[in-house]
Fold this protein.
Amino acid sequence: MSQSLNQQLADLHAERVASWAPEALQININQRQLLVDTADTERFVKAGDHIGPFELLKVEGGVLSRDQLLAEGPAVLVFFRFAGCPACNLAIPHYDRQLAAALKARGVPLVAVSPQVPERLIEIKHRHNLTLQVASDKDNVLARRLGILYSFDEASRQAALSKGTSIGEVTGTGTWELPQPTVVVLDREARVVFAQVSPDWLVRAEAEPILQAVELALTAATV
């Protein structure tokens, strides 16, 4: 039986505890804890919300619209930080293995979404030979509407700059904003039937509740 996603993320943290310099580790821990402590959950996307039209940029080129995604029924959006994010390189392949085939069999699109520009974002798809779609949320337009953005705290900014780069340079967005890892299941009417936002990026939605939400949306559509 494959490891749960959250066990993989816990193992990543344990590896960092064993190998990172204490100062760097504490900056990472403090940033994640700050996001948990200050999370404005009232702003987070939630079940029952209606999501207006949006467009995403496919990493291979072209546009993916809300109405295209929902043309045949529900769709699943998985927001992640950027192609080089270590936790994302566990989470996105996990969703690909655990969800992509099952959702495809049900005619349900699965899209991994990041603000990173397409020409840099495509790297994660190639690295893991992902079968799910990967798309860019240009300028964090959709993530902002969903209330899931955060900005690096000062210690994290200084740590990044000490390595010679800002996250805005990595993503190509020019800003310190990233989406908090989020899974959204939309029904055919663009109504949210499942949403989980994870302020701590080392805690994320497991695959099974996502699949259950899709099944409920499909069942409701046939009633």
Remarks:
- The chain has one domain: 5-222.
- The CA atoms of residues 182 and 199 lie 9 Å apart.
- The radius of gyration is 17 Å.
